[in-house]
Amino acid sequence: MSSSPNRIVATVFGAVYLLVGLLGFAVTGGVGFIANEGGLLLGIFEVNPLHNIAHLLIGAALLVAGLANVRAAKGVNIAVGAVYLLLGIVGFFLTGPANILALNVPDHFLHLASAVVLLGVGLGTERNVPRTAAV
Description:
Layout: H1 5-24, E1 39-41, E2 45-47, H2 49-68, H3 70-90, H4 105-124
């Protein structure tokens, strides 16, 4: 793998989110798939099985893109960063039945921090790499 900031961040974040997704299942035994309250991962972050699956899918997308090439890593970093920015903001307003990912306040801040890093690297580095193929 090259020393591309986008590839490094995508690969590292991908591996971490895959690990988080797997570890989440250790604390969600007996928790409903879309329960509004879940188990605590690392004693801080609330997760349910749907949240764990989301982490696995996001982790896989980041890892595959990071291992593929700079353009893929940049695109996925920006896309996932944008989704996490939106989720980090909207998450503060999701309560009761709407909170199908069992999000809590530490989750919101972690999603916002992830968004800052992913968008910062995706938009701020390797500007000569196009995000999409030329038509």
